[in-house]
Amino acid sequence: MQQPTVSERDHEGLDAFWEKVDLVVYLALIAVVTPAATKMVSAAWQSGGLSRTLVVTLEELVGVSHLEFVLFWLGAYAGLVALLLFDDIKRVQGVLLVVASAIAFVGFRSNGLLTSLQPVENAPVLAAGFALSFVLAGGRRLRNGKPPYEFRAATAALFWVVATIVTVGFLERHLSYTTPVSFADGRLQTAAAVTNVTFVGADLFTDFVAASVLVIGAHLFTSYRAQRDVFVLGVQRAGKTMLAAALYKAAEQESPNTRLNPSEPLTSLSSSIHGDDDAVDGFGDDDYTGPTEKGETHLHRFRSLDGALFKEYVNVDVLDYAGEYVGAKLVEYVKAFAPSRKLSLAWVVYVYESVRGLPSIPEKAEGLDSAEIQRLMAKQIVHSDTLCVIVDAGSLVPEVPYGDEDYRMQDDLSSYLETYVQILRHVDESLLEEKEVVLVVTKSDYLYQLYRTVDTRLDFFQWVNYYLLESPEGREKLGPLVNQAQVDRVHPVYYDLDHDASLEAGEPVPDRPITVNGARSLLRRIKGGA
């Protein structure tokens, strides 16, 4: 069977282009914001406020000079930044931080700070700070571990260092007050309570913007994780479970050395399907491969690495449920939960849930009633970033050579497409942010049988998109859904099947070794790619 060919090169080239644009933007922001922030922090230090008093007190208590104190912490900071250069996820951010640090160093010197450091004479102090932070933040793993390396302690420390210095500097710069403590005669002395606090408005807007950009940028640079809430919407027997397994296999192939942290149901499902590619028996020998029973939910969760320059983990959650719940009652719940007016009860609840977050979904739940599951599904739809809408390819062809029992159990195509359209309509008419809608055609091997009878130079992926989105026959079948979802692309996904064995068994039997087609393109789309 021909592999579906996606125009991956064009999309990957576009992704790479925008990452380079992001890199240029970050460099421009660093060049503009860092000098303003260093000027603000320098003025705050020279004002002699509470923070400077506490630093001087600490120096006296420890028994080190101000020069030794500064050099030790500069070395410690350099050790943390150095670790980022070895971090396989945050290496580019480490390079940008080196650039920002160099600009900040020049800025501090031009403002009268860090002018007489004498690093050569005090090399042991500088080296001690570097070595201590480098080792404590995980540098020993470079010798004892194996890639990919991640130094989360270093990134967390760097965030708090930058955020603390910038925030305290902003407050010290724009609040004028009498320092309540002082250090004299070798001890900390308490003065009068803080009185006559006045606000200094000079350069307030510039400093606020610079401080905000640096703190937010530090958080983004040091975060390893991005959350994309994905809800897979599919009727009974449409292939939601196997789609979850296909996406997980695609993530394994895409990043073979990455810890994907799959949930227990997904681990069991994947082991059953892909555990022994040479085995004839054992396919589906688990609790999850078949149709999900009513009253049950299974959470298939994993993470995947996204990005080339700016890498981050994206969490992908696929909630598996009985497809019978996709019906009129679910539409009613979505309409009720999607706020249509500000300050309405639905809007207040939505804002509260957005801030607080939805309750964690158990990896496996049983004994739930229909209303409880449909309410859960509606909440997930309303709060999702991406709606992955499944169309079963078997319902797009006149007849199927095997697996016809699925379609006796399944609603007819026009019926379940109308349910999809109504759900998307209520989402669109609400105050919710526009959601990404991804149209997935599962069991696309059925369409391949039709593709083989067509005289075309298009590859399979391109033909499926033409057939479903542009041809009169495809538009007649999927037109209302395509119009409501506003998609310009569909994603066919299928497993290679042993057709002789499938005809004999009367149901799909996968070929060995297991091969999934189209899942990598779909995973990239779900993660936010083109």
Protein described:
This protein has 20 helices and 14 strands. Helix content is 54%, strand content 12%. The chain has helices at residues 8-46, 50-62, 66-86, 91-110, 123-139, 141-144, 152-174, 204-222, 240-254, 264-274, 328-337, 345-356, 370-383, 404-409, 413-429, 445-451, 460-469, 472-485, 499-505, 519-526, and strands spanning 175-176, 181-184, 187-190, 198-199, 225-227, 230-233, 297-306, 312-321, 364-365, 386-392, 436-442, 490-492, 494-495, 516-517. The longest helix has 39 residues, at 8-46. Strands 5-8-7-9 form a 4-stranded mixed β-sheet. It has a 4-stranded parallel β-sheet with strand order 6-10-11-12, sandwiched between helices. A hairpin with a 2-residue loop joins strand 2 (181-184) and strand 3. It folds into 2 domains: 10-188 and 199-222, no CATH class; 225-526, no CATH class. By secondary structure, it is α/β, with parallel strands linked by helices. The relative contact order is 0.10. The two termini are 26 Å apart. The model is unreliable at 1-6 (pLDDT under 50).
Question: Which helices and strands appear, and what pairs or packs with what?
Answer:
Layout: H1 8-46, H2 50-62, H3 66-86, H4 91-110, H5 123-139, H6 141-144, H7 152-174, E1 175-176, E2 181-184, E3 187-190, E4 198-199, H8 204-222, E5 225-227, E6 230-233, H9 240-254, H10 264-274, E7 297-306, E8 312-321, H11 328-337, H12 345-356, E9 364-365, H13 370-383, E10 386-392, H14 404-409, H15 413-429, E11 436-442, H16 445-451, H17 460-469, H18 472-485, E12 490-492, E13 494-495, H19 499-505, E14 516-517, H20 519-526
Parallel strand pairs: 5-8, 6-10, 10-11, 11-12
Antiparallel strand pairs: 1-4, 2-3, 7-8, 7-9, 13-14
